[in-house]
Design brief:
Layout: E1 7-12, E2 17-22, H1 30-33, E3 63-66, E4 71-74, E5 77-78, H2 79-85, H3 88-97, H4 103-115, H5 121-128, H6 136-150, H7 160-186, H8 199-208, H9 219-232, H10 239-248, H11 254-266, H12 273-284, H13 290-298, H14 317-333, H15 338-351, H16 353-357, H17 365-374, H18 379-403, H19 427-430
Antiparallel strand pairs: 1-2, 3-4, 4-5
Helix pairs in contact: 2-9, 3-18, 4-7, 6-7, 6-11, 7-8, 7-18, 8-9, 9-14, 9-18, 10-11, 10-18, 11-18, 12-17, 14-17
This protein binds carboxymethyl coenzyme *A.
Length: 432
């Protein structure tokens, strides 16, 4: 893949000078472009790329995406195989450690994560201090950040054992914090983890257990939730992962870095699209209203939410798997009446020239909201579920970052557009 024999010749028409820039892995180094100057004292040429649309910020061996072909792989394993045959904790191990675990490694990993599901009792007191209507993502972000004060040794990020224990803690405690944020809004008592249950069964127990001595989740629901966590586990350099890496590049502890990732995911352009899909389906209401809705989309009045993706120009592989999970969940909960509208919308859109020409296909969010609603989650919880699933991915990316000798503190350049060298006058002169 790497070839230093490939180069790019750049001619600077300001000076007439030519530069030969190496092409490595399909990229050129921004630092090489920086060597291009108008004169000895002049600043080097820089690239302007708001939103990092065409800028690689790191080398990574975690997740591979081919958007044109609709391929997603974690550490080389296709997402379809992992969703069908693996489970979330094994996938978390794969992402963090880079390869599938042996039996002994797997058992130790599951034991460690199960053992660390409880949080310090003061975390509970801290969470109970939130207002009755606090958004669960705000509560999750704050409580993950607060964990850094409970584990101050987590700032020793160059110690491998220390890093590993924080990673285990965070994967273990995320469902506890997420479930407590959910219970808080309902005024229900927080439920402690049940370490005899699997990861997703325990999460369901902390969400829904009332007075029964043991909560027994329907295995089909527990499996569907596990699959949803797998599908959200990583997605290379998306907005929240970039936030984790950017904040982590200051060498802060991993709780603070992941809290930043949760903040990024909180935003409607990132984690909030499935909620928008639900609102859209409810507004359409019946199949008869679909043609008028589609005409409105084609006229540019609004977007078909849950369709299209910056990277996937084909069917999002995660959407295919979620569609199958819908069947399993609805077998237990009864069919969400909005499913019929979603399926009809998809059928029409996949045949319509507007969507075909623009390569607009269903993405991961088109069906996930329907499942979450059927599981009785309020829309504010959808992003919390996403965050729990994404945690191993954030941590794997953080681990890769802190071990990558090429990485530096993230510090982009800017193009300054403001005033210069203004003469200051004191308030009494300006206001006179
Ligand atoms: N409905 C109707 N038209 C669309 C849609 C849509 N959902 N998405 C894109 N288009 C059109 C757009 O109007 C443009 O048409 P034209 O060339 O005539 O101007 C063309 O397709 C290209 O769109 P774009 O906005 O340049 O594409 P983008 O890569 O910047 O946007 C997107 C990607 C996901 C923001 C966009 O497709 C969108 O807004 N989709 C709906 C929201 C959504 O479902 N978001 C969830 C993304 S998956 C979450 C994740 O992976 O984390």
């Amino acid at each position: 893949m790497t070839s230093v024999t490939e180069t790019l010749t750049v001619r600077d028409n300001r000076t007439g000078l030519e530069y030969e820039v190496p092409i490595i892995d399909g990229t050129i180094r921004a630092a090489d472009i920086g060597k291009i100057r108008e004169g000895e004292e002049a600043p080097g040429l820089a690239v302007y790329d708001p939103g990092f649309v065409n800028t690689a910020s790191c080398r990574s061996a975690i997740t591979y995406i081919d958007g044109d072909k609709g391929i997603l792989e974690y550490r080389g394993y296709p997402i379809e195989q992992l969703a069908e045959k693996s489970n979330f904790l094994e996938v978390a191990y794969l992402l963090v450690h880079g390869s599938l675990p042996s039996k002994a490694e797997y058992e130790q990993w599951v034991h460690n994560i199960t053992y660390h599901t409880f949080v310090h009792e003061n975390v509970k007191g801290f969470m109970q201090g939130f207002r009755y209507d606090a958004h669960p993502m705000g509560m999750l972000m704050a409580s993950v950040g607060a964990l850094s004060t409970f584990y101050p040794e987590s700032r020793h990020i160059s110690d491998a054992d220390n890093r590993n224990i924080q990673i285990v803690r965070m994967i273990a405690k995320m469902p506890t914090l997420g479930a407590w944020a959910f219970r808080h809004a309902q005024g229900k008592p927080y439920v402690y983890p049940d370490n005899e249950l699997s990861y997703s069964e325990n999460f369901l127990s902390m969400l829904f257990k009332m007075s029964e001595s043991k909560y027994a989740a329907d295995p089909r629901i527990a499996k569907a939730l596990d699959v949803l966590f797998i599908l959200h586990a990583d997605h290379e350099q998306n907005c929240s992962t970039n936030a984790v890496r950017s904040v982590g590049s200051s060498q802060v502890d991993p709780y603070s870095a992941v809290a930043a990732g949760i903040g990024a995911l909180y935003g409607p352009l990132h984690g909030g699209a499935n909620e928008a899909v639900l609102r859209m389906l409810k507004r359409i209401g019946t199949k008869d209203n679909i043609p008028a809705f589609i005409e409105g989309v084609k006229a540019g009045n609004e977007r078909l939410m849950g369709f299209g993706h910056r990277v996937y120009k084909n069917y999002d592989p995660r959407a295919k798997i979620i569609k199958k999970a819908c069947d399993d969940v609805f077998e237990v909960t009864g069919v969400n009446p909005l499913l019929e509208i979603a399926q009809e919308l998809e059928k029409i859109a996949l045949e319509d020239e507007y969507f075909v020409k623009r390569k607009l296909y269903p993405n991961v969010d088109f069906y996930s909201g329907l499942i979450y609603e059927a599981l009785q989650f309020p829309p504010e919880m959808f992003t919390v579920l996403f965050a729990i699933g994404r945690t191993p991915g954030w941590l794997a990316q953080w681990l890769e970052l802190v071990q990558d000798k090429e990485q530096k503190i993230a510090r982009p350049k800017q193009i300054y557009t403001g005033e210069r060298q203004l003469a200051y006058s004191a308030p009494e002169e300006r206001w006179a």
